[in-house]
Structures are given as C-alpha cells and as structure tokens.
Amino acid sequence: AWGMGDREQARECYRKSLAEFEAAGDLSEIANANYNLAFLEPGYDEPVKLIRRGLDLARQAGNQLLEGDLLHLWADRDFDKGDFAAATQKLEQAASIFEKTGVRRKLARAWTSMGRVQRAHGHPERAIEFYRRALKLQEELGDQQGVIQSVDIIGSAYARMGQHRQALDYYQRAVALARKTGSPGLVNASLANLAGCHVRLGEYGHALELLEEVLREGPADEVVVRI
Predict the structure, then answer these.
(1) Mind spelling out the 3-state secondary structure of the chain?
(2) pTM exceeding the 0.90 threshold for the entire prediction
(3) pLDDT, tens digit, for every residue of 38-47?
(4) What is the pLDDT of residue 219?
(5) Is the distance from CB of 84 to CB of 117 less than 8 angstroms?
C-alpha cells in the first residue's frame, strides 16, 4: 500500500500489525511497527512520539540495528525541522551503531544524511568528506542506486562551492551510471542536474540538448532542473 502511494491504507495496516504485536508482547516488532508508522505521520510531534516509544522498546529488546534505524529517522525529522545540531548528534549515534555492528549499507546511508546536514548548514566541503565515505562503501557493496545518489550529490556540493567544472565531472559520471541501470527516472533526474550545471557554466546549447532528451523520455513535471 505504501509503495503504491496509498498512505492511509498503509497506516491502517501498520496500526493493525502494531496491535497484534502488542498482544503477542514482541518488543522488537512493536518497535518496528512504531518505526514504520513514524514514516507515515505528518509533522514533527507525532512521528517523534512514535520514534521515542520505538527507541525505548528496541533498547529493551537489545535490537541495536533497529535502534540505529530509529535514531537515523529521528535525525531526518530534526533536519526537516531545521535543528541541525540535534540531527548531527543522532546521526553520529546511529553511525556508531552501524559501524560496530558491521552493517555497512546502513552506515553509508547515515554518512549520506550527515553530508546533507553539513551541506544545508553551509559546509559543502565537509559534506563532500561524508559523501565520499558513503560512496566508497556503496561501491564496495555494489549498491548501484546508492553510488548514483552519492556521485550526484557530490556534484551538487561542488556546485554549491561554485566549482562548476568539478561538479560537471560528477554529474556526467552520474548520468553514465544511471544509463546503465535502464531506469528512466534515474536517467532523467541525472540529465536534469547535468543540464542545470551546463546552464550555470553558460553552455546553453549543451543544456538544451539534455533537456530535450528529458522531455522526450518522460513528463516535464517529474524532474527538477537545478539552476
């Protein structure tokens, strides 16, 4: 239901599962149900209430991975609220858990989120350090989508610093990787970012060619060009 965009149906299913797990007394699954519900609740207060409860239960159950996931989700909510200090603190805790438990895919995601916080806080050079850490792990793990995301956001960080030629190299690499996946969504998003970089460089002909390809491949309202 969630994957199909039916948030209400997904919320109802998760609530039913929560009631069943509570009846069974399964602490880890109760915590996990709270984690899933926290994704679907709007705003800040209600999701955080669910996250707090999930954290308490995950710790009682000794489920470190779920504890890390909940801390990461809470950090994302803090980021959305604009509380970068709180987001950083929770991401550091989550990354520490994932590093200790050896779950490198989750560790890479935590570092990506840390980079996002640094970039939003006006420190793109620090963001690049975290993105590179994430990229190294994703390449080792064969996480194609993660690699594309990291390459793309490294380009965005360089663009934020005004280093558009460096950004161009990364955007071009992201396009090449996206084409290998055969995913129109990934290809179009990467092409749009590359086009925006050409615009910033004053290379309007190149930008136009790329945008025309995007329009041929998919609806214009599905992509955003970063200028």
Answers:
(1) CCCCCCHHHHHHHHHHHHHHHHHHCCHHHHHHHHHHHHHHCCCCHHHHHHHHHHHHHHHHHCCHHHHHHHHHHHHHHHHHHCCHHHHHHHHHHHHHHHHHHCCHHHHHHHHHHHHHHHHHCCCHHHHHHHHHHHHHHHHHHCCHHHHHHHHHHHHHHHHHCCCHHHHHHHHHHHHHHHHHHCCHHHHHHHHHHHHHHHHHCCCHHHHHHHHHHHHHHCCHHHCCCCC
(2) no
(3) 989 888 999 9
(4) 53
(5) yes
Per-residue pLDDT, averaged over 152-159, amounts to: 95
Q: Which of 44, 53, 102 is nearest to 75 (CA)?
A: 44
In 3D space, the residue among 141, 196, 146, 142 whose CA is nearest the CA of residue 168 turns out to be 196
Contacts 24+ apart (CB under 8 A), 78-86: 79/113, 79/116, 79/117, 79/120, 80/44, 81/44, 84/117, 84/120, 84/121
Q: Cα–Cα distance between 43 and 36 in angstroms, integer? A: 15
